[in-house]
Amino acid sequence: MAQRNRSxxxxxxxxxxxxxxxxxxxxxxxxxxxxxxxxxxxxxxxEPVREFPSFTVxxxxxxxxxxxxxxxxxxxxxxxx
Length: 81
Fold this sequence. Notes:
single chain, alpha+beta, 1 helix
């Protein structure tokens, strides 16, 4: 059976505040054993999401790309054991 999208009312006295950007120069990296997927802000590169293999030369290219995109903060997510 398909689930329906439900909207839940806010608690009394609560309002939806707009999100603010805390770290505008941040990138996100999904760490994998064979490759890493990296995302930078969309205005920093024509291809803001890239895949980098996990070899040293590729990790150095990843670091160079992040520097060229003006990234100074990275959030990493690793799945697996």
